[in-house]
Amino acid sequence: MEEYQAMYKASLEDPEKFWGDMAREFYWKTPFEKVGPTYNFDRTKGDVSIRWFEGGATNLSYNCLDRNVEQGFGSKTAIYYECNDLDDGHAAYSYSDVLRMVCKLANALKAEGVQKGDRLSVYLPMIVELPASMLACARIGAVHSVVFGGFSAESLAGRLQDAQSSLVITADAVMRGAKPVQLKAITDKACEIAAKDGFNVQRVVCVARLKDTPRAGQAQHGWVSGRDVWYSDFVAAQAEECECEWMDSEAPLFMLYTSGSTGKPKGVLHTTGGYMLGAFATTKYTFDYHPEDVYFCTADCGWITGHSYVTYGPMLNTATQVLFEGVPTHPDVDRFWKVCEKYKVSIFYTAPTAIRALMKSGDAPVTRNDLSSLRLLGTVGEPINPEAWRWYYRVVGGGHCAIADTYWQTETGSHLITPLVGAMDCKPGSAVLPFFGGPGGGGTVYGDHKRFEETYFSQFNGCYFTGDGCKRDKDGFYWLTGRMDDVINVSGHRIGTAEVESALVAHAKVAEAAVVGFPHDIKGEGIWCYVTLNEGEAYEDSLKADLKKQVREVIGAFAMPDEIHWAPGLPKTRSGKIMRRVLRKLALPDYETQDLGDTSTLADPSVVDVLKSYHPRKK
Ligand code: ATP
Ligand code: MG
């Protein structure tokens, strides 16, 4: 703890030394002149800007791959690839393998005419070509825009146009659980939609994921000659070495859309030097990373967690990691734990939504696997309610693993608030203390700097506004209470949605809860609770009083729910977060006719109708 405090202080008071020394562990073609940060967060003094490692030139692909190979880690396993289906097997890729792959693809992209600064879209499943495509872009200075493989043709089309990306890397199709996802067919459709708007995609590079396998028949797609090319043909003639483009520290590295929980997704642009150090340092310190660790982050590369904690952070740390193509429930609800046992995973990082979903099936699917290799557990994405934290700690971690509840955002690129496990005691539900004050932070919303300034810098002059609420306890620990927009003001009491949700989930029959405010004649705002029960529990009205009592006992009478709304399913973004803005609309008196806003990132739109059918005010 003392060491943390000293390092924290040093990171803020002497960034030149603290971050400068750390940055010099990496290769810089041109050394930086100044660590910085040089920034302006005050809109009255001009454009908002942040600059790190000014004057320096480096390359992420070099530091993730070549540097490791040069230091003698070429044969170390970088990626264990675990397929969706057990009978489909697995594969291991060493750092040298990945480097060769990346160079061939980078050369192919260059031969295609791709230049520094061009935007390329990647619409792939979790196969090794996904991180490899990101690194190939980074190698030649192209800006990657990874679109999660669950998005629809419309969403993909919008992102292609927004990024003006004329090349897409996709796959024929992939099995996700028992169902095929037709990535190529969706890409074809997206190209058609974009073309109607006058934007033409010139090249579609298609990885043969199901082709030539027993599941080939599951892939159904067309082929546009002249535009489409198989990945293997695309890279076939290319050399296995490729010189890096040396990128200015503030040159764009990638753009990525936020989850769309609170509105239309924002295309955040991240740059090179600061992002690199942020991803590296947080992976190293948050996860207490050691060379012998086997690391497994379940996030898809389509989200920021997959960028920073699958592709970049682990590789900058020369880590060995598991890349999992499938879903936690296929072929059975114990798949994550099977993977952990198989590869002797020591660091496991997932989201509260997955933990709550797996908790519903009880302890047995976890405990029938040998999880003794686990040492550290991480969570990210939403506040984790203490009940889920304790289950994660006790059942998954066997009571001997530390838990890192990592709070951060697409915009920050790396962890903001997180325990440094081992160094500090944790409290269930608290993200604990700030990480070292340091680099990272997206410098703009792609193509819309004004939206960037208005969203993040208009609330508090001179400060970045995350949009999230938080409490600090007497020990200085931080407790995220949910989005500021979601704080409910009941008769003058400010109540965080996360608190009420935690109280509900602590009830033995409750699996998940989402709480919103609604207009209330007397209290100003009332508390409306959407509740999902555990497998096999009946949605009976008699239980509602019990749940209200539960909240009253845990928090107090002022937080007593006004309505309990049964929710066999909740509206979630494709990254697994509850979309409370949709729930707020469904709690309004005229819910039937409400416009639900941008629901393009909603994973399953049909839950809205189910919720309407359970509406407590249904006539
Ligand atoms: P949008 O910005 O489009 O509304 P989003 O904010 O959900 O979507 P992300 O960048 O994926 O997009 O998520 C970041 C947000 O997730 C944070 O602002 C916070 O609300 C929530 N979050 C992430 N990790 C945690 C955590 N450990 N505890 C509490 N909240 C978290
Ligand atoms: Mg956000």
UniProtKB/TrEMBL annotation:
Residue ranges of the Acetyl-coenzyme A synthetase N-terminal domain?
4-64
Gene this protein is translated from: ACS
Which species does this protein come from? Symbiodinium natans
Family assignment? Belongs to the ATP-dependent AMP-binding enzyme family.
Q: List UniProt keywords, sorted A-Z.
A: ATP-binding, Ligase, Nucleotide-binding
Its recorded name reads: acetate--CoA ligase
Q: Does the keyword Cell inner membrane apply?
A: no
In its UniProt record, a GO molecular function of this protein is: acetate-CoA ligase activity
InterPro entries noted in UniProt: ACAS_N (IPR032387), AMP-bd_C (IPR025110), AMP-bd_C_sf (IPR045851), AMP-binding_CS (IPR020845), AMP-dep_synth/lig_dom (IPR000873), ANL_N_sf (IPR042099)
Gene3D superfamilies attached here?
3.30.300.30, N-terminal domain of ligase-like
Chain ranges of the AMP-binding enzyme C-terminal domain: 499-577
